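Reviewers of the previous submission asked for a worked example of the structure-prediction workflow described in the proposal, so we include one complete record here. The input consisted solely of the amino acid sequence. No template or homolog information was supplied to the procedure at any stage.
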Amino acid sequence: MNDCYFVINKKFEIVYIGDSFLYGQNENYLVGANILELGHGLKNSIFEAKYKEVFTHKKPLVFYALYPILNHVLEVNVYPNKKEDTVTIYFRDMKINNHLSVPSLLTKCADDIEDMVLIIDVFEINEGQVNISYINNSLSNYLGIPIKQLVGQNFEILGKTKLQKEVLHHIEESLTSKKALRVNLEHDTGNGKKKWVLLEITPIKSSHNGHAYWLVMQKDITQARHKEDIKTSHTLYDQLTGLPNQHAFNFEIEKLLKSPKDNAALLFMNLNNFKNLNNTLGHSSGDLVLKEITVRLKQSFNGVDFVSRFNGDEFVVIVRSLSKNRNIAISQISKKITNLFRLIKQPFHIGETSYIPSIRVGVTFIGKEHVNKDELILEAELAMSNAKGRGVNSFAVFTTSLKEKIRDKHRIEKELTNSFNEHNELLLFFQPQIKHERVVGAEALIRWNNKEKGFMEPFRFMPYVLESGLITNLDFYVMEQGCKTLQKWSNDSLTRELNLSINLTAHTFIKKEFIDRVNDFINKYKFEMNRLKFEITENLFLENNAEILERIDYLKNLGIKISLDDFGTGYSSLSYLRKFPVDEIKLDREFLINALDNRKERIITQTIIEMARKLDILILAEGVETIEQKEFLLENGCFVHQGFLYSKALSEENFINFLVSFNKVS
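From that input alone, the workflow returned the following structure tokens.
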């Protein structure tokens, strides 16, 4: 080991290196680093104090320090630099050898440090002779015994002092094994508080007169341990509920998968309608609900079970110690979940509102066949989705029959991703919109021409699109294909006057890049802007109203029309008409189904049509399937229709043929 030197500034940052044996790092790594933060035992209050003293008084000094590889002591020389606000630090290795007194050399750096230091002299010729060669002031003060009463005494005398038996045991263990030891210990301070210490025991080899020395150091690391606990708490625990978070769950489940000795199950659960609660009562109320749910979860599962908050309103529980018999295990889980449902459905008050929460739970058993946690979560989520149709506070268990659904999900997601780049896979179909017995436009509807399963309607693949996050890709794809179609139609006298409606999800409409993509498409494809119509649904208005209004205004200034789809199915439809400048509302088919037979439904439908007329908003009825429905609409002033009475959605070629024949007959 060679001597070395550093130059540091007042921030203790290294600005120059002569050599770096202490750290084993190259110069590029160390320059700019804080010399106190480099580890290896040199982060010590004495170092910092000595460096500050030289900066302040501009006078050199020398002190001694233990190097972490405890066979070495460092002589540290610190010199101020006159021309610059820096100091130079020389480290000299004081090698311990036969010519130097081990205790005297080590004690040069141990007298005044806060750590408790003990040096034991083992006379190898007589193995029973183990004497105390040195103790420093810190250890003497802790024991309450003067140094001179202990030095030279047999090591056994420490057993009669207040030194912890655990420390003595580790010292004896190290002496017996003749091996170094490093361990963290927890001590009770006697006032109800705990203290953590780092105990290091290191042999110092020497053949000088048959003596061997053992250096024992005990450092108080309580403060550092508290900081680490706080860091761990923020990393592994949810700050709102205090439950283990997703990171902690990942650690726990990976550990369980590596050694699945215990028969266990994974429960994935989420709150029903939690988003609506947040939107109506506010996020602070939502937080109260999550805290209360946490209390009830803890009451439902015992200490061996692992309860965690996974994400948002989702919770995951690992249930342990289940029977290896599947039927019995299901019964055990069922009892726990039934007890949870009993607690969950008890109402509690949020201000003046009485709220009754409900949840859905998916269950899957943890087995050797599971490769990773993602597979487990997917199974539990699928089971939870299966429970959705069973009402509130329901659960379902994953079965082998659902595995094919998982395979389908993965396959379809992969094929969907590829389909955006494949020709003739994702196609636009067009459902005619009729006014006064003439085709005036169409709604663009996506169809997937799957290589294996043929043409697939949206209800067969849209759930996978939504789950996989491909919905925005699909929306932009349909938008571009729609603009391309309008450009084509604008060059043909037969289709030049047609409008085209394109559905947009709220997820896409609020995307940051939405307006940029719209501009890209309308610049690329040339057509009259008032022929393009974007259909949006009422759930879009649950988002930031100011931003939504700004985007709608921007689109309308371009000439693009806005249609409010599924009108009347939301909670605040009338208020949306007042706030947002829509050009059209689409009357939901549910009104038509009941309007002919139900007086209240008929009056509501008539009122909506009359209101739209007085507000100069076009009204279009979708889902028109019978002559009676058509006549009812015409009698009440709704003249634009769409539905199977006229035609289903058609390929572009068939739509053009329908247009020619229908308009000719009319």
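The longest helix spans residues 471-490. We consider this example representative of the routine output the project will generate in years two and three.
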